[in-house]
Amino acid sequence: MKTVIQALISKVHWPLPYEFVETTCIERNLDGEQPFDYEVSQSSKYKGALADCLYSLAQAINFSEAGKSVGNLTDEQRRLMLRQANALYKEIGEEEKETGTPMVFWGG
After folding, report:
1. Three-state DSSP state, 64
2. Is the pLDDT of residue 66 over 80?
3. In whole angstroms, what separates CA 14 from the centre of its chain?
4. Distances from the Cα of 50 to the Cα of 33, 60, 66, 72, 79, angstroms
């Protein structure tokens, strides 16, 4: 049987570190090692954790240098993740979130 952490990782469809998802579960007072079932999937704690995971990806940075890229999310993918996260936040009675405009600083 799948654990809550495994379910969160599989629902996001994008690689997230296990430790991040584990921390998110702790912050939501959700036992990440418990079996994932229908009841858990409908809980506010689980939906909040899923929203937090999606929101974290919507905020992730893209970095590219010398032909190497890290974080290849398009702006449209970020908007979709944020929309999904905000729908979950709204469903569980939490405030919707926004992402800021990415900024890069060069020099000192």
Report:
1. strand
2. no
3. 9
4. 15, 16, 34, 21, 16
Half-sphere exposure of 29 (CA within 13 A, CB side): 2
Contacts of 70 (CB under 8 A, 6+ apart): 61, 62, 63, 64
Judge if pTM exceeds 0.85. no
pLDDT digits (tens, 9 = 90+) for 76-108: 888 898 999 999 999 999 999 986 554 444 555
Residue 16 pLDDT > 90, yes or no? no
Backbone angles phi, psi at 85, to 5 degrees: -60, -45
Rounded to whole angstroms, the Cα distance separating 15 from 65 reads: 21
Tokens 């995971």 locate to 53
At residue 103's C-alpha, the angle toward residues 97 and 105, to 5°, is 150
Length of the chain equals 108
Phi, psi (degrees; rounded to nearest 5) at 71? 75, 85
How remote is the C-alpha of 99 from its chain's centroid?
Answer: 13
